[in-house]
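Researcher: Next sequence.
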Amino acid sequence: MSHTLQDKRPSVAEPHGSLSHARMPGWAPLAIAAGSAALGCLIGVVAGLDSKIQWGLLAALIFIGATYLITAKVEGPRQGKNQVATSLVWVCFILAVIPLLSLAWTTISKGAGVVDGYFLSHSMSGLLDTDEGGGIYHALLGTIEQVAIATLIATPIGLLTAVYLVEYGQGKLSRAVTFFVDVMTGIPSIVAGLFILSTWILMFDFGFSGFAGALALAILMMPVIVRSTEEMLKLVPNELREASLALGVPQWRTILKVVLPTAIGGITTGVMLAVARITGETAPVLLLVFGTKLINSNPFEGAQSSLPLYVFEQYSVGTDAAVDRAWGAALVLIAFVMILNLVARGIARWKAPKTGR
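Model: Next structure:
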């Protein structure tokens, strides 16, 4: 009986009917990538191409073509197509990362030599833009206050709007709110600044201040928070809501104790995306905050500066000292956003519901 079953089993050595086939070694993609890079550089040198970007694009094309040909020869056309798709993902990832790394390296290399304790703790008071020295304390203080006020205004409004759309929204009002949120998502920052200028300053006769700039920044934040929070709330399983309601828990308490804690990680990430969206805005600050070289810690009265406006002003001067200050302020601005993201991730992980097995 056993001999009969063994005779009916397909032979491993048979080319047809066997589940095993030749495989590419694990180091093959790296070898193909290295060979493609070398060949792309060689073609660039021979063809007289001066741009290193052209060399990189040639290497990427060679890598994709070589990956398909070699994989299809060894493993078959189907695996070749699969490997080409994987290679395209890696090439697109590298093409997206290279500009980011280049930007970060340029900002760090040009701004690190300027940023020190004096630069962070002094303003431009009493100095001309063409003079050496000075710092960004007044601009950093203005950015922190304006972003904080805008976040305090936009976050509860955006969060409650998203809760309404997901948990309660039905009918024409819900469709109208969704439509206007979509419209607000594409509003240019200068339009938000002009709206606050025409209402808050010209119509209600309030003066230029950091609070006016924060109102415009809050307008830019709201649609981002609404959209991101709405998507996170939709990802919460309905079974959790049904289980809570089945226990007799009111809907508002279910939202507060079950839905929001479950989605807190994604909600926090959305808020931080909105903060990053407004931190670098210059147009509303230029229109509403007006800019100053003096330290103004009161965001509700008088002109105030901010880091994006400071970078714009210093780079517009054009002198070596001013351009160095602009790069230093840009580095501080990037570090500011990174620190906020790290803090938000820590809070999200701390407040996220604990999972275990």
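Model: The CA atoms of residues 31 and 37 lie 10 Å apart. The longest helix spans residues 77-111.
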